Amino acid sequence: MFTRSCLALAISLASSSALQAAETPTLEEMWALVQKQQEEIESLKKQLGETDTLLVETKVQLAETDHKVEVAAEVIEQGGVALSLPGTAQWAEKTQLGGYGEHHFNHFTDGDDKIDAHRYVLFIGHQFSDDLRFFSEFELEHGLSGDGKPGEVELEQAYIEWDYTQNHSLLFGQFLVPVGIINETHEPDTFYGTERNQVEKNIIPATWWETGVMMRGELSPGLSYNLALHSGLAADDGGKIRGGRQKSAKATAEDLAYTARLKYTGIAGLELGATVQYQSDITQGAGVTDTDALLLEAHAAYQRGPFGVRALWADWDIEGDTFALNGRDQQSGWYVEPAYKVSEKLGLFIRYSEFNNAAGIDSADSKVWDYGLNYWLNKRVVLKADYSNNIDKDGPDNDSLNLGLGWSF
Q1: Is 89 inside a domain boundary?
Q2: CA pair distance 24, 30, nearest whole angstrom
């Protein structure tokens, strides 16, 4: 419409000027006038065409800019840093960052109180393709590491997982041993109590990782399995199980271990699990006699509405005269833990535990009563307060009041 109006106005002005110049133009004058008008029309069309091209180019540039802004916003929201938008955005979409941590305050009856930045852990994972992924966990314990310092820097997990067929996968690298309740799931917002329970700590012993290869998958809906061949413990000849963890740090591999687990989760809120592990020489060649070791573990966890309960039993049977002399040939324990969520944020629990790292010669177990509460500021942020009544067979009781802060993301 604008173009037609311009042309009409140009023709009208040109015609008016010509009529004023000569009231009765000749045929040659009329033809010259028409040619002049045609030239003016072509000039106007050219100018309008250039304007339209500029508008189209501007629209394309604006669309490209909008796309880059949207990609940058997505990368920032996912925690990535966009240095070169197209490549970085694809990398960030396939890479996951997470972690957890906890701070503890322990007031003991013997007066040896402690404040501890107990754990600070970072997760990094990456999806290479639909069937191939990487996962790792890097941990700082007790806030400070180095010579003479109380803490450690540890690589807790670093493995590649390959889905070689539907519902079945292979893990290569360093992974958590599939045993117990908290060994694989131990973020502080997922369990009650400031400290992890004594049975899984001293008998299993959590947190426990090894390096090797593991097959896992689903046999039927709700029934899963794990089969693993991996580095083993290197317990001192006649020592406690927990002291045998090598943590894949130039670990002696004279004797590997075999682990198998079945887990059932086919009923809503229920988990049943059982693990068997065998190692033909738990001393890795340091013992003077055969020291094959067998671990049996079984557990149940059930959550129905606000009520929940956990129970676990674990037992080591270790051959060898040296282990038998100090009772370390039998190391076992169990616990039961009922809990009740008063509200979405507040939960109460009580736990009774018995364990014995020298059950082969001493039937008197260490006994622990833990009771307290968790208060979740958020599903991933929790405050904890509990009291531990320790009845230690090896020495005087050392009860403690424990306060904790934990988070995961």
Answers
A1: no
A2: 10
Provide the total of helices (H) and of strands (E) in the chain, helices listed first: 5, 16
The verdict on residue 86 lying in a domain is no
Other beta carbons less than 10 A from residue 234's beta carbon: 22
227 shares its domain with 373 = yes
Asked if the structure places residue 126 within a domain, the reply is: yes
Asked if 38 and 175 sit in the same domain, the reply is no
Please provide residue 69's backbone torsions phi and psi, each rounded to the nearest 5 degrees.
Answer: -65, -40
The domain boundary, picked from 25, 42, 77, lies at 77
CA–CA separation, 202 and 368 (whole Å): 13
The total of structural domains in the chain comes to 2
Q: In this structure, is residue 311 part of a structural domain?
A: yes
The pLDDT tens digits along the chain (409 residues) read: 444 444 444 444 444 444 344 455 676 776 676 677 667 766 665 665 555 555 556 555 656 655 555 654 554 455 444 444 456 677 888 999 999 999 999 999 988 999 999 999 999 999 999 999 999 999 999 999 999 999 999 999 999 999 999 999 999 999 999 999 999 999 999 999 999 999 999 999 999 999 999 999 999 999 999 999 999 999 987 889 999 999 999 999 999 999 999 999 999 999 999 999 999 999 998 877 779 999 999 999 999 999 999 999 999 999 988 899 999 999 999 999 999 999 999 999 999 999 999 999 988 899 999 999 999 999 999 999 999 999 876 656 789 999 999 999 9
